[in-house]
Amino acid sequence: MKLSTTLRSALPAAILGFVTLGLASAPVFATTTTTTNTFSVTATVQTACTVTGSTLAFGTYTGAAVQASSTLTVTCTSASTPYNIGLNQGATPGALVTTRQMLNGAVALNYTLTSGSYAGTNWGNSSPTWVGGTSSATAMTTTSQTVYGTIPANQLVAPGSYGDTITASITY
User: Fold this and answer.
1) N or C: which end of the chain has fewer CB within 10 A?
2) Sign (positive/negative) of CA torsion 19, 23, 27, 28?
3) Left, alpha or beta for 17 (phi > 0: left; psi -120 to 50: alpha)?
4) 39 within a domain of the structure (yes/no)
């Protein structure tokens, strides 16, 4: 079979086009290289402790002594951290850590806060009246301290609701 003259002259141009466009060449695969390295990640956790308390609710006072308790919960970021907890005199002006007072208007109802038992040591806000302890052997696990409260008998006060606010401080 004979190729026509037009086809013969067009054939080299077509071959040149294939080569120029890369259509006749072998496929080219891109190669990638992966390199790895490491880096350090660090943090320092400082020892920190918090103390929270539950409400100490005496209930109804009838003139007889009333006792109630509350729990202080301590949480520390480090295991086995020694701490001291102090309780202030409360929010009533003139109250002392040895004789705290709840108010109903201007009328005061005296009460005490102790550690160990209802007849225990007065719980104050400085040494030796604060309460010491050690946080749990596992970090971020709570430990607790019981606060014992007593309203002494025979106080002549007006009927009504009495209240006070105690601030607990933790030193570690």
Assistant:
1) N
2) positive
3) alpha
4) no
